[in-house]
Specification:
α1 runs antiparallel to α6 and α6 packs parallel to α8. With 240 residues, this protein is mainly α. The protein contains 10 helices and no strands. It has one domain. The termini are far apart. The mean pLDDT is 87.
């Protein structure tokens, strides 16, 4: 269990360092007086929300016994178990809470974009650590696939999407919506893959329903954010 904490601390350090590299010289942050102190305060306070939602979702979907005792719920080192989906939902709750504040408005779309890219690079590390120290026997093929997929996704976001954001070709928040869409699809496929020898094992479970909702909400906001309907209409008119 101490090894799980070590993996989480490594992921947190990598996340913080990645955010630092992305945000330290960003012109928008400098102009809006978004300091590294403010960003790190959001990260550390947001981590508490993410931990709470991770434990809550893990209790609902994996081990309901941890919900019956508050000490078991809080003592993660002795009763390990977190939900990745819960952590993502918790991060979304933090961004939504900050968006509702009128005082000290922040470029939350840009912050969410940088957080999404930084979170992507921690996922391969987290899956590798889970595979090495988990007692549940997570299949090596699925672990390797998830590590490779999320690492490639990180490269795509970093090399192709981030430059478009910095050059104002993408609107702030678009990368975050693309991340949510990608995360939902990958998680759904991972949940559908059966461990009993069948290719797919379709189950209507609450976790899959939430993932589907996250995907639909993300794609709706993405279409609205980039005004894709109008762009498609203009493209069709040019073709005619």
């Amino acid at each position: 269990m101490q090894f799980f904490i070590l993996v989480l601390l490594i992921c947190l350090f990598v996340f913080l360092y990645s955010v630092y590299l992305l945000a330290r010289d960003d012109f928008i942050f400098l102009r809006r007086d978004v300091t590294m102190e403010k960003l790190f305060n959001i990260i550390f306070l947001g981590s508490l929300f993410c931990f709470f939602f991770s434990r809550l979702f893990y209790g609902f979907f994996e081990e309901k016994s941890i919900l019956s005792n508050p000490f078991v719920f809080l003592l993660f080192p002795y009763f390990p178990g977190l939900s990745l989906l819960g952590g993502v939902v918790g991060a979304g709750a933090v961004i939504s809470f900050l968006a509702g504040r009128k005082k000290d408005s922040l470029p939350l779309g840009r912050i969410a974009d940088f957080f999404s890219i930084s979170f992507l690079i921690t996922l391969p590390i987290g899956f590798l650590g889970y595979f090495m120290f988990s007692e549940n026997g997570f299949p090596i093929q699925r672990t390797a696939s998830l590590i490779i997929i999320y690492f490639i996704l990180f490269i795509i976001f970093l090399r192709f999407l981030l430059p478009r954001l910095l050059s104002d070709k993408l609107k702030e928040g678009t990368i975050a919506f693309l991340f949510l869409m990608s995360f939902s699809v990958i998680s759904l496929i991972n949940n559908f893959v059966s461990q009993e020898g069948k290719l797919f094992n379709f189950k209507i479970i609450p976790e899959n329903i939430i993932l589907l909702i996250v995907f639909i909400v993300a794609i709706v906001f993405f279409v609205k954010q980039e005004n894709l309907i109008e762009k498609i209409k203009k493209f069709r008119k040019k073709q005619v």
